[in-house]
Amino acid sequence: MRGTFEYVKVRTVDEACRHLAEGEATVLAGGTDLLVEIRNGLRSPRLLVDCKSVETLDQLDVRQDEVTVGASVPLNLLIERKDVREAVPALSSAAASIGTYQLRNRATLIGNICNASPAADSAPVLLVLRAEVHICGASGSRTLPLRDFFVGVKKTALRDDELVTAITMHRPARLRTAFRKQQRIRGHDLAVVNVAGAYDPEERQLRLAVGSCAPTPLLLEPIPADRSNPRDAAVQAVEAAMRAVSPISDVRASADHRRAILPVLIRRTVEDLLGGGV
């Protein structure tokens, strides 16, 4: 592996924050993105702060109206636990689309959002679930809505001395969720476009989020929707999404291809939510 760095294994969040405050330090949890970036010369931290042994970061708490996932919880646990699949099925679906089984044994949900890729598969689901990010730093703790956490391509609102300890999703029992993804190849690949949705039949409100079509994952404004008329809701959703996105061309797809795929995924997501779906 390229680069020279020091390594420290911490036992508490406070200890981790103290090391991060020293500068040029990076949190090591799953490491599936970080170690690749170090190997490829994209990052060169002075110190890796290993947080895998911090017991308070391994919480996975499923309650009636919210789900909290700690920073060291691996993605496969979100797929394999029945209570998670039942509470937030779209999150389990999104997690299953990330990487391979072996990678998901190490990769974490928090790592997926902290990597801040515009194509992160978990991000649209978390956005429609009104997720909040719990952050701890040398100067104290704070909570930030996920929609304010992403500030650019591979950039977050985290300060140098901070780490994410957990993320909480708000999920009323009546809420319906759905996740759709288009990728280049079968198996594991980054999204060309991904879409997540949530529908509350009591509020009659549709929430949609889109990934891989802008510098950050996008949460659209809520759309009034009724299950008796899904077609109108789909038309409104497509129009709102097309106004909001700014896709680019890259190695996975052209901007025009993304613009062509997005309305298809939006319509299918709306049908999942207002028709069958999960």
N- and C-termini, Cα separation? 43 Å
Number of strands: 15
Strand order of the largest sheet: 4-5-10-6-7
Please tell me what the overall shape is.
Answer: globular
Enumerate the spans where pLDDT stays under 50 for 5 or more consecutive residues. Answer: none
**Percent helix range:** 25-40%
Radius of gyration: 19 Å
What does this protein structure show overall?
The protein is α+β, with helices and mostly antiparallel strands. The protein has eleven helices and 15 strands. The model has no long low-confidence stretch (mean pLDDT about 90). The chain has helices at about 15-20, 35-40, 75-80, 80-85, 90-95, 100-105, 110-115, 120-130, 145-150, 230-245, 255-275; strands at about 5-10, 25-30, 45-50, 60, 65-70, 130-135, 140-145, 150, 155, 165-170, 175-185, 190-200, 205-210, 220, 225. Helix content is about 35%, strand content about 25%. α10 packs antiparallel against α11 (about 255-275). It folds into three domains: about 5-50, Uridine Diphospho-n-acetylenolpyruvylglucosamine Reductase, domain 2, CATH 3.30.43; about 55-170, Uridine Diphospho-n-acetylenolpyruvylglucosamine Reductase, domain 3 (2-Layer Sandwich), CATH 3.30.465.10; about 175-275, CO dehydrogenase flavoprotein, C-terminal domain (Enolase-like, domain 1, 2-Layer Sandwich), CATH 3.30.390.50.
